[in-house]
């Protein structure tokens, strides 16, 4: 349970991030801002010279202007942000960290500050358990459409409480709109921006936190988003997404209908635009990087900066390749393999003003909060995903012996909805209506009794269900259960063979279990999935909970395992169709003793970890030592190999109840 110190700190964090673009008004924070001076406290920083440098740059107007748009991909913006991050992250104690943040907040670009502050808070050990408000409530402009923001202002001016419905972009004449509910889902966007805060491409080894399997997570999290998007497309009678090609037009345009807080509109991309060179980057460069990456995959090694060969043909190869393709600070050779993925985001974001002639602001593809709104995001990541597939396809297939769990068999699997009227092996999805607090979208501070303005959005959701898995074991053992789902039929209505479907599998859950000798009935609730996180608490909810705890009306529990990165639980299942869409559900159980990383965490400890599937762990090692997507990550030339007692496939239908 939180003590008073924790509660007060948590409350001040929330107040610090309230109306991030306006100067602080909270008296306690204003007092810190006016009385604290980093220059008078240099001894409490790891690098006093860095503090002096940043203070000097701020005083001389050499940092990004408050009204400009912070872009992480911009090397100048990023270098400034990293300086601020390093000051905050390495500050000697919590007080120094927080007071420095308060001092910086009104003096630097708000989103640049927010990003540096958030990444520092997520990684400081003394900040474990603090909760950031949902990203869509801190910077609503990055998640909402212009129309909603305009109506919110109107409501504020006329002091009329209002719930403003937000529509997905586009019109019925644009078939991509059928799946806009996925790319424009605020929770998914929030997850994606948090993933890139937990695993920043600029993260340096000297920060002292080793990001276990960061490159592999880059592959797997985005791979799963693609598999999910394709399943949504099939649920809406659309063919799966095609990869981008530098030589061909970008078929789908995109009109974000959104505006930055400074009033600039996000650029619109018409259909069929071609890629163009940027002043500092050519399409030939991109093709060169891609070719060299393909060569590396085919040869089975990358050439590192010191000319040594780093082999890819083992289970860690995907991690090396992930770092190279992204590319992150961990890339073995940024000169040779370039920055294929990051540059592609920038090329797409600037494609409508490639010569910078019109001074357009950055496109949606240039921010992790907004990128997935654009259908081109999925096309780019399909291209990236295909590179990973080329690599995986070259690894030796698993044998029956690799997959075996002697003495353990899955006798039966079924899924059952928890509502009484549910049909066995039928899952139900629907669209819920959710309200987002818009207090931060309009200027003027949040006050008790202030007019309530909210946006309402429709979000994909599903009825809870449970898996009932009957396992026979001839001994006491520990197993790890892996559950995946994928559409059984392709867009042409043909059954997808195992060797193809494996690349479309959506991970639903992965959890260790204690097995006793004899029959075991494993009942697992969908809500316990280690892939997803529960609904985040809104700004007003968090404030109320802390106030109640400070007043002694309630208790506030600290969850030190809390992750902001995590796929929203609502989105666990693809939409399916109103008539019921057929999916295959794959369940395997393997030997946890064999699969876990030694010394690893215990079966019971793993249960505390959330969003393990897409977000790994913040520090330490991922307990499951198998490659992500195991055992379906490698080619399956002989499907007989999967005909093993510890694996079972059943057919389920997903029905969308609207
Ligand atoms: Cu997450 Cu491209 O890496 O958007």
Shape: globular
Coarse structural class: alpha+beta
Work out the oligomeric state of the chains in this entry.
Answer: single chain
Record field, number of beta strands: 14
Could you tell me the CATH topology label of the domain at 241-393.
Answer: di-copper center containing domain from catechol oxidase
Mean pLDDT: 94
Radius of gyration: 25 Å
Report the major sheet.
Answer: 7 strands, mixed
**Secondary structure: helix percent:** 25-40%
Number of helices: 22
Describe the fold and architecture.
With 658 residues, this protein is an alpha+beta fold. Among the domains are: 4-130, Hemocyanin, N-terminal domain; 241-393, Di-copper center containing domain from catechol oxidase (di-copper center containing domain from catechol oxidase, Orthogonal Bundle). 34% of the residues lie in helices and 16% in strands. The protein has helices at residues 4-17, 27-35, 48-59, 75-89, 94-105, 110-123, 135-138, 146-157, 180-183, 186-198, 214-235, 283-299, 317-326, 334-337, 340-349, 375-393, 400-403, 498-501, 539-550, 592-595, 603-606, 612-615, and strands at residues 162-165, 301-303, 309-311, 408-417, 426-437, 453-462, 465-473, 477-487, 506-515, 518-525, 532-533, 567-568, 581-591, 647-656. The strands form 4 sheets. It has a 7-stranded mixed beta sheet. Helix 2 crosses helix 5. CU2-O2 cluster binds at residues 192, 196, 222, 341, 345, 368, 371, 381. Keywords: Monooxygenase, Oxidoreductase, Storage protein. It holds the Pfam family Hemocyanin_M. It comes from Thermobia domestica (Firebrat).
């Amino acid at each position: 349970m939180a003590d008073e110190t924790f509660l007060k700190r948590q409350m001040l964090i929330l107040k610090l991030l309230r109306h991030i673009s306006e100067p602080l008004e909270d008296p306690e924070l204003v007092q810190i801002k006016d009385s604290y001076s980093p220059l008078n406290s240099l001894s409490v920083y790891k690098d006093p010279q860095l503090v002096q440098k940043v203070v000097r740059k701020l005083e001389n107007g050499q940092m990004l202007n408050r009204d400009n748009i912070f872009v992480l991909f911009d090397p100048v913006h990023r270098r400034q942000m990293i300086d601020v991050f390093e000051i905050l992250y390495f500050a000697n104690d919590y007080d120094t960290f927080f007071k420095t943040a308060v001092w910086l907040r009104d003096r630097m670009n708000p989103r640049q500050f927010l990003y540096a502050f958030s990444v520092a808070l997520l990684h400081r050990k003394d900040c474990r358990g603090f909760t950031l408000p949902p990203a869509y409530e801190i910077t609503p402009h990055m998640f909402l459409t212009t129309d909603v923001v305009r109506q919110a202002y109107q409501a504020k001016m006329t002091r009329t409480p209002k719930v403003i419905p937000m529509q997905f972009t586009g019109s019925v004449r644009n078939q991509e709109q059928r799946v806009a509910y996925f790319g424009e889902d605020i929770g998914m966007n929030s997850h994606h921006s948090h993933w890139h805060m937990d695993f920043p491409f600029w993260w340096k080894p000297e920060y002292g936190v080793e990001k276990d399997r960061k490159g592999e997570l880059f592959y797997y999290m985005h791979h799963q988003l693609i598999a999910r998007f394709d399943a949504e497309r099939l649920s809406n009678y659309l063919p799966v997404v095609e990869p981008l090609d530098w030589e061909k037009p970008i078929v789908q345009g995109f009109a974000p209908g959104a505006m930055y807080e400074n009033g600039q509109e996000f650029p619109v991309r018409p259909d069929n635009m071609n890629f163009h060179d940027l002043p500092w980057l050519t399409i030939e460069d991109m093709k060169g990087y891609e070719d060299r990456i393909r060569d590396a995959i085919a040869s089975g090694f990358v050439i590192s900066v010191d000319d040594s060969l780093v082999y890819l043909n083992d289970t860690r190869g995907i991690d090396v390749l992930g770092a190279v393709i992204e590319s992150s600070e961990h890339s073995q050779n940024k000169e040779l393999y370039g920055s294929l993925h990051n540059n592609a985001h920038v090329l797409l974001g600037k494609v409508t003003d490639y010569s910078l002639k019109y001074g357009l602001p950055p496109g949606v593809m240039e921010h992790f909060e907004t990128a997935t709104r654009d259908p081109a995001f999925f096309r780019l990541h399909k291209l990236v995903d295909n590179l990973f597939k080329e690599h995986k396809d070259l690894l030796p297939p698993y044998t029956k012996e690799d997959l075996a769990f002697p003495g353990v068999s899955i006798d039966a699997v079924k899924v059952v909805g928890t509502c009484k009227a549910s049909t066995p092996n039928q899952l139900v999805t629907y669209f819920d209506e959710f309200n987002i607090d818009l207090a931060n979208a309009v200027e003027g501070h949040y006050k008790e009794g202030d007019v309530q303005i909210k946006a309402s959005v429709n979000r994909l959701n599903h009825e809870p269900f449970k898996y009932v898995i009957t396992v026979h074991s001839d001994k006491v053992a520990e197993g790890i259960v892996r559950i995946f789902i994928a559409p059984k039929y392709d867009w042409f209505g043909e059954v997808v063979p195992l060797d193809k479907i494996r690349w479309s599998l959506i991970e639903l859950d992965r959890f260790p279990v204690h097995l006793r000798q004899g029959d075991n009935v494993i009942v697992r609730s969908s809500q316990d999935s280690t892939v997803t996180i529960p609904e985040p608490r809104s700004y007003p909810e968090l404030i109320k909970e802390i106030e109640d705890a400070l007043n002694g009306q309630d208790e506030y529990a600290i969850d030190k395992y809390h992750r902001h990165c995590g796929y929203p639980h609502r989105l666990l299942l693809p939409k399916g169709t109103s008539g019921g869409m057929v999916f295959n559900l794959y369940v395997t159980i393997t030997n946890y003793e064999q699969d876990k990383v030694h010394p690893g965490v215990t079966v019971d400890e793993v249960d505390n970890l959330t969003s393990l599937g897409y977000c790994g762990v913040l520090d330490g090692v991922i307990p499951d030592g198998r490659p992500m997507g195991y055992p379906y990550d490698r080619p399956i030339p002989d499907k007989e190999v999967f005909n093993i007692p510890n694996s079972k496939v059943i057919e389920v239908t997903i029905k969308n109840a609207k």
